[in-house]
Amino acid sequence: MTNTDPTKRVSLAQVLALLKALADDEANNYGLGGASIASEQPYSYVKLSGSASSSKSRLKNSATSIADLLDELVDADDRKQEKILLQLARKCVNTEQRAPMYEDNRIDIVTSMVRNGPTYFAKLYALQCLKWAVISDAQVSQEDFDALRDCVQEASRSEIAAVVNAFQNGTSGEKEEAAVRCACIATRANVDSESKLCAGMVQPLITLLQTGNDTQKLWTAEALGDLAMENETIRAEILRGNAIKTLVALLKVGTSEQKHRAAYALGSLASSKDGSAKIVQKEAITLLTALLLEGTDEQKHQAACTLGRIALSKGASDKLVQEGSIGPLITLAQSGNRTGAQKENAASALHKLVWTDHVLTSIVSEGAVASLVGLLRNGTQAQQTNALEALTMIAQVKENCSKIMEEEGIEPILDLVRTGASAQKQNAVAASTLAVLAAGDDEICAEIARKGGVAPLIELLRDGTDTQKENAAIVGELQALSLNNDGNRAEIAGEGVVPLLIELMKTGTDHQKEYVSGALGLLAYNATICTQIVDEGGIALLIELLRDGTDQQKLNTLVVLDKLAWFDSIRLQIVSEDGIAQLIELLREGTELQKKSAMTAIDRLVLNSTVRAEFSRHGGVGPLVTLYRNTTHPLWTKAANTLRGGLLGLLKAAQTLRAKEVFSI
């Protein structure tokens, strides 16, 4: 401006424009300053300045690759390390730029910074870089990340206050850095213990989401997604701020990264019932489905996750069918990449959607069975579990069982019974899936046996958890459902299942006892199994259930006793365990089904003269006569047949006028 040659002077407007550019660049690179500044001046607005001479180097650094930044980080001083890590965190938000971090052991540099970084925010920025290595790139395990997170202290009140202050009073660059810091704090935060502090950042974030520039909106959506992930209080605060409308708008018109972060934030908010309902109301399903069809890998991954979380909301399933979301979800479950996350999220969404009947029909017709069976064969543990649970619901419709057979789904389900992760109860879920498939289907029962399914189920019964034992008992019951399949029953008997079932009947839960008694009722068509039940002390336990069990346990037990009563020697053991008295009690006080089943068992028992005498001595004839006299009772015919059958010999033996008058036979 003071050059002696007027033609070479710079105008005032040019100088002001340059100064503004330098100030903005200074804010972008230095921002709110180190943690020490925020701690010393917790509630004041911090404004930093830089020199013009350093502007070129800082502008050059802003375009530096991640590889160069990491190489520079090693030899930088403490203050510069924090600035480099801030730049690194900003760059790591872009998937394509992250790749060099995983080359030449550079990720170890970032890990070291989390543990030993010079400042609080240096550690926090490094942790943020590793977040994507976990959730997007599968380069760091969740377990290792959790351990690293514990290396970083929780945010203090003053540090959060400084971030909020920057939102309210800072320059554009400082607001952007505040959004970055907020996202980093949320990544580290134990939101449950820090919810009140973190809640103070919500409204400034929402304001910036609505009014900020593209970069600010991106980081704000990231921060809101992190804050809302695991805390209902924070989610409610975000919902009160009407953030969903703005996030849905970003899905529609945002940049590629903004769409990804908006879908992520909506997925976090969808963890609450209210949030999920509002997302559906704002027509987000249409936009999320578009991401499933045409989005980047990360967008597809996050869209599938969010759709899965809102799938059970009122009206969501119908909307998903209308918008054509089912087909893309099935495609993603079959061929998605992104280190398996796409497949997992798609399978999870399908699992939730199959709970609605008409959506289940749509899912099956779109070819989901093949995709889900494919995940059973080659998927991760989480993918397999989601696929199992979806197939369990699909198999509730009998016609779908044949589709699962056609896709050769029995063998991979059995493989998971044998080898599924016990800690995740995967083998228990697989046993449950088999149970539903086998229900009343002779062909599937036979297929399970042909594929060697008996032994692993009995192994679960022997050594599994309570849930695994319960499901194994169900399948043991269902495998025996076919009355013509004594081969299955013989194999089960040969595997020593009866002692295990009897032990479970002694010590199991009510549910387990119910399933065990049901299994024994179907297995007892086999004579060897009947003998084993008696040898293992099963009669006394069955009579105990008849006396003290639930209604279903009593009904199941009556079926077992009916099968056992075919054998004359066992009839007398039933009498010796006070079984007659309990049968008569059910004739008097049982449900209609129990009375009917009790009479069926009595029909067989009283073929033995000793049992007939015992039945008469306990007053068993009276309840039968009461039913016989009531000709409108639904059990009248059954009572008449019982009286005319096995008890006829007893009545003739009585030879008393009283007996003839009472029975009129």
Automatic annotation (TrEMBL):
PROSITE patterns cross-referenced by the UniProt entry: ARM_REPEAT
Entries under Gene3D superfamilies matching the protein: Leucine-rich Repeat Variant
Domain U-box as annotated: residue spans: 461-628
Identification of the protein by name: U-box domain-containing protein
Pfam families tied to this protein: ARM_PUB (PF25598), HEAT_EZ (PF13513)
ARM repeat boundaries on the chain: 452-496
InterPro entries reported for this sequence: ARM-like, ARM-type_fold, ARM_PUB, Armadillo
